[in-house]
Write the structure tokens for this entry.
Amino acid sequence: MTQAPEAYAAFAALAPRRIRRDVPLAPLSAYKVGGSADLFAEPETGEELAAMLRSAHELELPLYVLGAGTNLLIRDGGVRGVVLRLGKAFKSAVAEGDRVRAGAMSPMGKAALAAERAGLAGLEFGFDIPGTVGGALRMNAGAHGSEVSRVLHAATGFTLAGEQKTILATEVTWSYRTAIYPEPLVFVEGVFQLAPGDSAALAAIRRENHAYRKATQPKGNSVGSVFINPEGDFAGRLIEAVGMKGYRLGGAAVSDKHANWILNEGGASAAEIEAIIREAQSRVKDKFGVSLHPEVHMIGDPKPGTER
């Protein structure tokens, strides 16, 4: 660890069974790359979460909340401060009347299946979103022509000072893959407002959507689309047009199937993946004057000597 040893020790003493030091993060990310977290906290109750948030706030420790790591590039030097990941108690997904209540660590696919089995329509797009409910709330995740903003009733979470709050969907500013809440929250739950549907028909839609996904998307360790599509165009088309489809650097490569996907083909480093991202941005800007904005979030420090 590289900073604030007294603060680290004080935070770790808060809940010794739930807080560990120097935890490798690569196994927790879809890219399977990245360094370690200085401190890794995994609360199992709202009370534990609130206490950890208050402590990190009072100790002025950097805090990053980790979900399934499906839209994340963790740099090779690791993450300073606290990486917080909700525990198993936050993985439930249950239907209640015409709504589904899902914990923030529940996979979106689990929430979608809970809706399907209860004969509730509107959340079937979530089956093919690989991340968690919390991540979907954070970024207005979507697929198959729909997105979270269309079905969310309310999100509950804790402020960075440890205060629990519930935010109605009408209080959120929504846009493509973006959700701006009235204040920063660490989500613990989302409630989705759905419509009556037929379970068998919903299952058929799910199977059709999933088959299309499998047929059109590359296989391998990746986070899916790396860049947000620029208005009126497609990032994949632009990247292919500048000759980067199949481009390789070390163990990382632009997919031969879809140029907006970068794969870890085995042994890639985060630095190699990030360098491909920067190269694609540079080439597209030079040729088309278009700025590509990453959809993937990049966190942590580079490993010394690996900056490109």
User: Anything to note?
Assistant: DSSP finds seven helices and 20 strands in the chain. The longest helix spans residues 270-288. Residues 91 and 106 are 4 Å apart (CA to CA). The two ends are 24 Å apart (CA to CA).
